[in-house]
Amino acid sequence: MSNKLNANPVIYEVSKNVGRIRKPEDEDESVADPFDSEEIFELIRHINDPEHPLTLEQLNVTQQELISIDNDKHHILVRFTPTIPHCSMATLIGLCIRVRLLRSLPERYKVDIRVSEGSHQSEHAVNKQLNDKERVAAALENSHLLEVVNQCLATTIDK
Amino acid sequence: MSLLVRIETFITAPLESAERAEALGEITSAVDNGSLTFLTLVEQLGPKLTNTDPFIRAKGIGLLSSVLSSCTTQQLGKNVSTVLVKFYLERLQDQPSVGELLKGIHALLKANAVASDNALQIPSRMFSEIALQTYQQTTRHMAFSILELLLQHHLTAMKFMGDDFISGFIQAMDGEKDPRNLLMAFRIAKVLIESFDCTKFAEDLFGVVFCYFPITFRPPPDDIYGITADDLKVALRDCISATRLFSTYAMPLLIEKLASISGNAKRDAMETLTACAPVYGPEAVFPHAEHLWHYLKEEVFKAADDANITAALGSIRAITATLSSATVISHAMKSPLELYLEFAVKDSLHHLTDPELKYARLSGKMLVAAASSSDPACHYVVNAVLPSVLEQCSARDIASRRKTLLDVVVDFLSAGREVYGSVNTEAMDVDDDFITPLLVFKERVLDICIAAASAASAYVPLRQAGLRGIIELLMSRQLLAGPEVGLALGQLHQSLLMDADLDARSEALVSLVSLSRVRPDLVLQHTVSQLFAQLPVGSCTETTPKLLSLEELLGDVRELSVERTLCAPALQRLLERLDSVRETAGSSHGDLSYAEALSSTMLHIIEHREKLPQELGDRNDFVSEAAESILSPLLYKATIAAAGKGGIFTTTTILRIWASIFSSIMRQSTVLLQEKILRNMIDIYVRGNTSLLPEATRTLLGSSSFCPLSAEAPLQETNASLLFAAVICSCRPEVTLAIPSINEFLQDLLVRSLDASNEILIESLAKSVASILNKMHDDTAVSGFLQDGILSKIRSGISNLAMVQQYRQQYLQVYVWLVKALVLKSHPLGYELLSDILGLLSDDSLGAAAAQGMGIIASDPTDKTFTRQTFANVKLLHRQRLFSFCVPRLVIGFQTGSAAAKQCHLLALSHLLQNLPKQVVSNALPQLLPLLLSSLILPSPELKLATLDTFQAMLSDHEATLSDQAASLVTSLLKIVTAKSVATGDTMHVRMAALKVLGKLPECMDYAILHPLKPGILRDLMSALDDPKRLVRKEAANTRNKWFLLLGPKAT
Known about the structure:
Distance between the termini of chain B: 59 Å
CATH architecture of chain A: 2-Layer Sandwich
Structural class of chain A: alpha+beta
Number of helices of chain B: 52
Number of helices of chain A: 5
Number of strands of chain A: 3
Largest sheet of chain B: none
CATH architecture of the domain at 335-518 in chain B: Alpha Horseshoe
Number of domains of chain A: 1
Shape of chain B: globular
Number of strands of chain B: 0
CATH class of the domain at 335-518 in chain B: Mainly Alpha
Radius of gyration of chain B: 39 Å
CATH class of chain A: Alpha Beta
Largest interface: A-B, 26 and 25 residues
Distance between the termini of chain A: 26 Å
Strand order of the largest sheet of chain A: 1-2-3
Order of helices and strands of chain A: HEEHEHHH
Oligomer: heterodimer
Radius of gyration of chain A: 16 Å
């Protein structure tokens, strides 16, 4: 880990008032809460960066504004911003987000994961890799890769 | 047995054997009672002491030494000890016996039986005869103990020995490795350095001590001596920093350690440096100062560890403070301090002007650390740095960078506060000859802070930094005056009342709370008034345009009232607002919730005083004031409202809050004050004596009567009985009730409660009686009163099938409170009555009520009655007794009962489980497991929640018991989370609790047990991910991810 691609990333301050504001209807059994972008963001904000002991939120890689959801069409689009445009970790970060959402969202949703426009040199290639089912499945067959992903996801537990 | 035989036994018997100890004991007691003198003992030991076998000789000495260390000291006359010391010293050349010999000398010194001229010979003999490091640890330990004792008792004599002692000690210590011995050796070294003239030996002494730096000792896992690395570090540091003679040797070496790789060693070096600098003095520090700055900068900029940064900043402060004390030779030349700071500023300034500002904050911290050390340093640094920082602060247009610079400014303000004091610092503690250098800049700083804090700046952290700056300015001595204070406060209020961001608002509140500690007058006069100006007078209509919600305003009032001087005025103003609320006809829901919010704020403020540890006098002042100004007005208000038969002040919502206020005031009161309040209460409530009320209240009351405890009175009036119960239940046991006959009084209250129809009145009266019975000292009087008719009346009422069920339940309710009072104090009658209630669990019509009753008996009421806080007689372990009494009966009842009875038994069990410390439950777990598992199937949410709670607690300690049932537990849990049906009792909270238990399994149970369950769990949890409730989904996702991460047996 001595030669990090971005050895000294900018760390963003995370608001102290984490978590969503509780509303009375959250406790009301008769009201169904729809999925929204904040809920998706809550799921991925605590994922650890593969290089640094920092979360994707602290590195501003994930932002709630970059998540959109269409409940009628069961479609979710998550975009993320690598810290530097030539970041070779972008695919791995995307894979972590992909796996986290695979494990945490109901099957009816189709999830697209992309790097936000213009934030990466090989934007097209990364996007293609992340949204190709077979390639994701193949990546997760690789036990070493899976181990790295699981490590990055370990920080999301009990948050 | 003759002496010789005993000696023989001692020497031949194996070590640690009983007969050896016995022989020693007998000899010692013979010496103690004077029948055996030491001289005789030595004579008899003669053959052993001159034996050719070295082990026999050592054992002979050992016997003598053991006797010496365990006998009482009166037998040790001066002559005897002189002879013994000489004898011991003489024999020190006998190597195998050295250990035992030292033990004897130690015993003699410990008994303080050695004269100084004899003591003088001990170290010289020891140093010349013994090469200490060739002996085992215990022997060395003994030798160091002897040296320490000598320095303690015979310091003057040892000083006479001077250089020989020091050189001998250096030799003895050289090469020591055992932490126990080292700790002692460091202590001895420190005494030597402080009391002896060490000039000649400074280098040697330093060498023998410093070679242990840095300490890397780590205590072994089974360490029984409890010596930590920190103990050694501190002892060593004390040695190194004990004399300036060490400075020439220490400084280069410490700098070398600063450059080492280990973070711990670096921190140790920095902390040692901080301790040494003031002792070594400016002459020693100055030549290395620039060098040190570089190393420390490296540490601050690169350190991953906050502790290291703190240590580095501490060193900078110590170095600057030391240089500040340097004498200036001529004014033409720059002083060492100036030279040093000139260099430091030059080295840092470019970081503060660098456009990226990457190291600005850290550079700032270093300069601030230097500035906080002394007046001249503060002047120099502030004048050299602040102008350019301030200039940039106004010039920068990127908010996050302005924030960084403002942080540096705020740090300077707090450094100034450290040197020149806060507004509340006693005038004698600070020297007014020193004028803070910040004075020149205060206007600009204030402007910048206000601009940053105002809502115009869009970046929240910048606003927060501005607020921190304002509060530092307000708290600093010598800075703000007159209109500036107003300006600063104005901005704080602006942020508190108008800022839309929660973080910024709470920063403003925190600032004001800390200001209230030093300037309560300002906060009371301005802030509290501002807040109250926002609180509506009279009715609170929904349409009133408000900057902040009521809750937020009252929350602020509550936080600020933590300060004692603000407490009373705030309460008074809240009460005034409460007075203004429309109380009778035409009151709306808004009025009720306004009155409720005001009342609970008062409650919070009063209860907060309870939590503070404080001088008793102050609490008495507060509480007697509160009794007068809060309790009485509320009592009269309730009385008028109740007699007027209506209005919001007769609703249980308000009255319950008031009851808590009464209770809290009572809890803080002395016996005397309690009796006064109680007398008033009984007069008005029981006797209906309205003449005690103040004139104004009586006029309002008119001719209407007030009898809130009467069964015939209207519902609204009897609600006021809540206040009566609150006062009665919070009495101290020493309080005497002002009534002629206690039995009649209790009887009267009980009969009223049995006849009453208002639920509130029934409970209030039953609780009052129960509380009095619980606090009565005389147990026979208690059972006497109960068995004198009243109990049988209640019992027959309960079992009277001809009565309406509602009445039977009412009787049962009263009965339950009496049982609770007795069970708490472990009164035997209580358990007798308790079995009646357990029996009723199988009753068709009263089963549910009985189960609820078990809940009342097992739990602490939320209003703190029947707890130690309200002075109840609560026996230790009464819950455990209750549990072990009930469990076997519940298990049998469950096994034999009908379906309905089964459920009642399980409910009763769940009440017990909820209120018991979990470790108590664990012993009965195997017995209870079938009951718990069947609880998960019944459609009662409370029952399920309690059971799941129990599982959650059991899992961490008793996974073994649960492991056998893991599969059936998992099945039940999955059923709950996949069914998602409220109708079967699986409410969202039940689902969440079930998911939590599921999520806890992977960390508690064996992989071998869980592995076969994993695929099914992952599959079924998929459906929980689509739960209609978001909170449940969150828990489901967390649990499912935990199971994904369960990949193999736990690494141990």
